[in-house]
Amino acid sequence: MRKLRLTPKGYVADSDKICSPAETAARARAAFGRFGSDILAETRRIDTCRLGIPVYLSVCGEKARSIMPTRKQMGKGASPEQAEASALMELAERYSFFHFWNSPEAFEELTWSEAVAKWSGQVMPIEEIVRSVHDSLSPEAAAGIMDLVPWRFVRAFNVTRDREEYVPLDWFKKINEFNGSSAGNGLEESILQGACELVERHVCAVVDRNWPVTPTISQDTIEDEVLCDLLDAFQREGIFVLLKDFSLGMSVPTVAALAYDPSTFPADSEIVFTAGTATSPAKAAIRALTEIAQLAGDFESKSNYEASGLPKFKSPAEFARLLEGPEVLLADLPGIERPDILEELTVLARDIGKGGCSLYTVDITHPELGLAANYNFVPGFLFRERTPRASVGLFVGRILAEESDPVRAALGLETLAEHYPGAPFLPFFQALLELRTGDEAAAARLFAQAEPLQEDSEDKALAAFYQAHALTRMEKWGEAVPHLDRAV
What we know:
Elements: H1 21-33, E1 40-45, E2 55-60, H2 62-67, E3 72-76, H3 80-101, E4 108-110, H4 112-118, H5 126-132, H6 139-146, E5 151-158, E6 163-168, H7 169-176, E7 181-183, H8 187-210, E8 216-217, H9 225-236, E9 240-245, E10 254-260, E11 272-277, H10 281-296, E12 327-328, H11 341-354, E13 360-363, E14 373-377, H12 392-402, H13 406-419, H14 425-436, H15 440-450, H16 457-473, H17 477-487
Parallel strand pairs: 8-12
Antiparallel strand pairs: 1-2, 2-3, 4-5, 5-6, 5-13, 7-14, 9-10, 10-11, 13-14
Helix pairs in contact: 1-3, 5-6, 8-11, 9-10, 12-13, 12-14, 13-14, 14-15, 15-16, 16-17
């Protein structure tokens, strides 16, 4: 990756970018245009115009569909130009991400020890792997477990420490999925956006796990013109909006926003709860409100959004706890706004370092598309969809059970049992391995053994489902029914 450089902002109305949304869209269209309609088929506006907050779709072309699991991307913004640019760059981000992971030449497959031997002093510390899942393993034990499977190593840039390090990137993809991917008009813009999204997911996960009392942001004293216009759009239609400060001591502000329309809920609309992180409080709130517009379907179209960073409430009573907390001004929230994007990124990366973590980035820019894209991660940051019982052994065990050579997998699971005696995941993964190798009877017994050991209802249900699946593969249909009943 090239050296990061000073990047003055050229657009600051509703987001901080190198250039205007119109210029961004023009650059993106020109890049996609080199492929005809293979990557981008079309963009179109999809909101009903009730709120007047635009939402756009970018629709994938045939080549993009061949490597991407999604067929369309949504874009948000306070103006039609920004929303369309957002949809285009979302496609650039995702296409670049999946193209990168489908490029074997981008990686070198090695075990942990092999990588350390090859790049002595240049591999990320094993402590970062342990920190990434909040495990309590010793570094030596963690290195031994990471040696049970090969990893896809790439060179990453540690923004916090200002140095390059080799990292097992598929480890971070396994624990974070595609969270942290980003795109922008330049690397600096892309990385900052990705870093802000990582902070957003982290603080939202902390709130979702612990539900601390957080401040409520007063809407009466907000002065930002774009933000005021967005709030007016909701208020004009009688839609309830609540703004919360979810910054949790980070240097960048995170504003959570909840909105629902009493006149259309629950028949034609949902309660929408999301958050936005940016370098200034106003931009964070704008991001959250435009995200609500993207998810809500104008609160009249019977849309059904999929919750990600924050939970989905089914009734106003469920969000009553959010009404608690002291009232604060938007200006009271933290901020790192600067005239230069690299300056902001540097401040944020250093702040992440003060908490003992590091911001890493990998340049995943598609070589022919030429639109800057990155995969970013912070070992130690939380992610709501990741189990709170994560460990190095849990994720390595999953790989062993699902992907590794059966003999290697069996030996590896025995090693994990030495480090994690009595762990609930052990009989489950042993059962998966038996199922994969064709011993359905052994698999059913092990899934039955694993079910009562699981610590939450979803994991218990999964074990029950797989027990039924193993029985149906033996055509024991009647015996499978009670297990399916528990799984539902």
